[in-house]
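quick one, 291 residues, struct below
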Amino acid sequence: MYRRATGPVGTTAFIAFLLGIPILAGGIWLSSSATDCIRFLQLPLIILGVTLMAISLLGLSAACYGQIKLIRFFLFLLFVFLFAILFFIIFAYAVTDKGKGQVVVNRVFLEYHLEDYSGWLKDRVVDGDHWEKVSGCMQRSGECGVSMARYVRDLNSGLLVPESADAFYQRNLSPLESGCCKPPTSCGYTYVNETVWNPVPGVPATDPDCTRWSNDQQVLCYQCDSCKAGVLATTRRHWRKVSVINIVVLVLLVILYLIGYMAYRHAKRAHYDETYGVNRMSKTAPSMFRF
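---
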């Protein structure tokens, strides 16, 4: 029964399984990035990827064994999944719609301010308990360690010394490096190396982050609002990249779903139009909707 539908449905399920891989990979990529410290961000992607692959396996089994009820159930689950991934895409763009880096005079890198962000994502990141876990994770991972340090050879002594302040100001720092590994430029601190800055005596600190900065390599600016803004900017950038992948997957899934569903409907219609044996019963007022 409905053997004509098993081929297209099986193909739909197989390709849908393959499309679950980039979604799952996106979640794993987030977990391997700096935002690994924010566990709740990559978890929805991993769940979506695993769910799509599980639904696809159900579709493959239904197509292989010709189980029409399972085919119908597979198409229903895939239809629900389409709405789920659409909701996730809209949600991801909604919670990352605000916030961008600010240009600083005579600096190539941007700086980030917490007041530029708002909404659910900000509330989740700056929450006391969450931020303690995030900052502790960043300290243990050494975010400001090897990646920040750059050395040049002194022409007189031949020794390796930290790069000059002018060279550092021309670097394109990541949001985390800019927000968490150095004090804000407005503090006016004197550059010693990438993660050591000395305050200028007699110059008042106008930014609260200036008093939170420490040359202790385990402290630095991990408790600064600029660091929280840097995490938000990094998360925003990553979520936008993953959302592009999700949009492509969604479009392909819609096409696949339509192919599988139309094959199922065509086989169903052909089955009911066939004549064999005694006259078949038919509805006097057939339903407008047939799944």
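Confidence is low (pLDDT under 50) at residues 1-5, 274-280.
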